[in-house]
Specification:
single chain, 275 residues, mainly alpha, DNA polymerase, domain 1, hpI Integrase, Chain A, 2 domains, 3-stranded antiparallel sheet, 52% helix
Length: 275
């Protein structure tokens, strides 16, 4: 099989497995760079040392994991050589702890928001800890008022999950729908197309600026704030893991560093003892 045929098989299998379009494009681009850099006549002739040299010398540390995952998946799908990666590590990069907005700062953003669409966007990002891609892909059929949940379908890595609804969100949705009457996607553009993540980002930045918040505020930060604030009020980290859709609680544990009050709220067993 030619390299181009392997590439087509790779893309088709990712689609079959439910990978998002962004992930497919990203992984496909990684494979293009990898194959054009290593320059062997066929992928099967690329050995472990070639891959190690590529990851170490040709890829920045903060993108190594992405390339590693893409190449590993390519060899698994196209050449059935998943074991080739058993001894190929990648450089782990410590994640920066995000600067979290306070509850008061989030409140200020809601206070200055007069647009019903923008207020619902902010509320869903904050209340449901959504990624921006999940927000713009929401459809009205994903909202189940009888069970008080929203279904997040085909999220990161193709995983589905549920997040909770509350009466405040339902009220915002009803007010928004009466004015905008969108049909399929909850948030749509002028001609009914899906809202763009860039437009959501502009909304969040403008609200922060209007609220007088002198920090770098972006859509994913609202998700960080949601998780951190849940920890602050004593929510179990495994519940937050489920809400965020993290595969491992290790990923969720970064928010332990952003929470300032969790430790102080732990009740000492000594309080149950009469001294």
């Amino acid at each position: 099989m030619k390299t181009s045929e392997h590439k087509q098989t790779f893309i088709q299998e990712m689609k079959r497995r439910g990978y998002r379009q962004n992930s497919i494009q990203n992984y496909s681009s990684c494979i293009d760079v990898f194959l054009s850099t290593v320059k062997k006549d066929h992928p099967k002739n690329i050995n472990e040392q070639d891959i190690k040299d590529f990851l170490r010398n040709c890829v920045k540390a903060n993108t190594q994991r992405n390339y590693h995952s893409a190449i590993k998946l390519f060899y698994e799908i196209c050449l059935n050589q998943k074991q080739k990666f058993k001894n190929i590590p990648y450089t782990k990069v410590d994640k920066n702890i995000p600067i979290i907005l306070s509850v008061e700062e989030i409140q200020k953003m809601f206070n200055v928001c007069e647009n019903k669409k923008h207020k619902l966007m902010l509320a869903l990002l904050y209340s449901c800890s959504l990624r921006v891609s999940e927000l713009i892909n929401l459809k009205w059929k994903d909202v189940d008022r009888s069970r008080m949940v929203i279904y997040i379908l085909n999220a990161k890595c193709g995983k589905d999950r549920q997040v909770g609804l509350n009466e405040s969100l339902i009220k915002l949705m009803e007010d928004y729908y009466r004015e905008y009457k969108t049909q399929s996607f909850i948030f749509s553009g002028q001609f009914g197309e899906k809202y763009s993540d860039r437009s959501v980002g502009q909304v969040v930045k403008q609200l922060a600026k209007k609220a007088g918040i002198n920090k770098r505020v972006y859509t994913h930060l609202i998700r960080h704030c949601s998780a951190s604030h849940l920890l602050d009020v004593g929510t179990d980290i495994h519940m937050i893991q489920r809400l965020l859709g993290h595969s491992s609680v290790k990923t969720t544990s970064i928010y332990l560093h952003t929470s300032h009050t969790t430790i102080s709220k732990i009740k000492s067993p000594l309080e149950n003892i009469s001294l």
